[in-house]
Structure formats: structure tokens, C-alpha cells
Amino acid sequence: MHIVIVNRWPRFTEGVRWDHELTRYEEFIDHEAHQVSYVVDRVGATGVLAGRERIASMVEVDDISSYDHLRAAVTEVTERVGRPVDQIITLSEFTLDAVARVRQSLGIPGPGPDEVAVYRNKVRMKEILAEAGLRVPHFAGCENVEQTLAFAETTGYPLIVKPVNGAGSIGVHLIQDDKALRGLWETREPGGYEIEEFITGTVHHVDGFAGEDGTIVFQVVSRYLNDCLSFEGGAPLGSVVVQRGRLRERIEEFTQSCVSRRSACAECPSTWSSSSPGPRSWSSSKWPAGSAAPRCRTSFTSCSA
What we know:
Blueprint: E1 2-7, H1 25-28, E2 35-40, H2 42-45, E3 57-60, H3 67-81, E4 87-90, H4 96-106, H5 113-120, H6 122-131, E5 139-141, H7 145-155, E6 159-163, E7 173-175, H8 178-185, E8 193-197, E9 203-210, E10 216-225, H9 228-232, E11 238-241, H10 246-261, E12 270-274, E13 280-285, H11 293-301
Parallel strand pairs: 1-2, 1-4, 2-3
Antiparallel strand pairs: 5-8, 6-7, 6-8, 9-10, 9-12, 10-11, 12-13
């Protein structure tokens, strides 16, 4: 196979420090049995530790989350190697959307834009879960200033405004009143944002693996220490694995309900939920999450799937 890996993650070799073990591509993918090419940005180039003699081709781009840049790079890789791309892989949520569009435009197998929207577009993922009768925050896609003010009048403050395809609480705003909401729209257009009710409670996170029928065969529940919004403001963020008990069972049952109904089969489901006063989903994905949850899961279970 000709496999293209899109990488934006660095790797570190100077002593003991945090490293992204899930990007050890040279260990996970046989570079001898397959032709493996890389598309990277400047930082991502430091994360490619396979010997250059084992790499079919490598192209560096300025903006690795740009569809135009990625499509041009994959086209260049195809021409250099002299054969079509069979698979394109990315492990960063920041590049999932662009990679999906590249797959679609170049006819590469794998999730396309519609499937990726199920776990990248925060409005779409909540629509699917709400239609299935699962609890989600009151939400709406932002269309214009007056529409968001009308939502605020109906739902009440405080509210959260966030990019529909954001990650890591980047660009998330906690809005307390009409003045703050109007002020936010003075600096940006509402399109591309979601508005939702602000829910307090303990945030839990679930990592797992689901089969093609949506059945979760493995999952680990973690509890966040602090929260993502606080982390964006400079506070530390971590997680601890939740031990067996009724709380963990309730969250596992809720996660299974979410995964079964969101039409996103197989791979790695991750679900964020607030457990107070009851489980309520506010995000889901198909990639390993942050807050050291993957590292805790691997250490606790010896499973990195």
C-alpha cells in the first residue's frame, strides 16, 4: 500500500519529557512492507523519526490544516512516488476536516466530510444525539446577531459560544449577558460558531473502541481535574481513571447510547459528558483525547487501542 501520514505533532529526544507516543508511526506502520509518505508542517517534521531511506516521500507545507495546502501536497507525493494513495492517516483533530476533503476530492478511501462532521461539527453531533432522545445542552448554530440574542432570551445566561469545529477550548467564550454577546460579534462573524447553555458539573471523559455495529468492546472512564475552559485560561488540566462503581456504570451506559446513535462506526469513540445532575453529552469524537487521558488509559490497562 501507499500510505500518506499527515503529521503536525513534534517528537522529543533530549531527555525525559512528555512525548506523543501515539505518533510513533515508525513502530506502528511497517515502512518496509508499505510505501509510507509524510505531509508535515515545520513542527511536524520533527515528529518523523523514521530513517529517510524508509520514507517514500515527504512534503512540508506552511499550513497543515489548510485543504488547499494538503491537497497540493498529496498530489505532489503521488507524482513523486508514481502511484496513487491507498490510505491517508491523521491523528490530529485540527486536520481531520481538511484530510476528509482531500480524500473526497482525490478518491482516497476513508471517512469523507459528511462522516467526519458527525464527530467534528458540534452542531451536527448534537443534532444526531438529540434526535435519538439523548440529553444534550440546549444549542443552536449561530446565524446572525439577532438570532443569538433570541436564543439567549429563551435559554438564559450564562451561555457558551464556541467554534463548531474547534478543539481544546480554543476560541470558547463564556458569555454572561447581552452586552458581552453583542461585543463578541463586533469582532467576528457569527457563522461558524455554536451557542449553547452553560452547564456546571463534573466533567468525565470516555476512551474506548467500538465495532462496526456500534457496540463498545472496550472503554475507560476518566474524570477531569479542572476543565478545558480553565485550561485555556492557564490552569493545569489532567485526568484520573474512575474506578468501578455505579457512577462509572451510568457513564458507560450513556456512552454506549451516544455511540450507538451517532452513525459513526468503528475506530476510537471519545465522549465528554457532564455527570451532574445526570449524564449529558456535549462533545464526541473519534480520536484520542487530551488531558493525559490516553496516557492514563494506557498505564491503567496496558491497552493503547
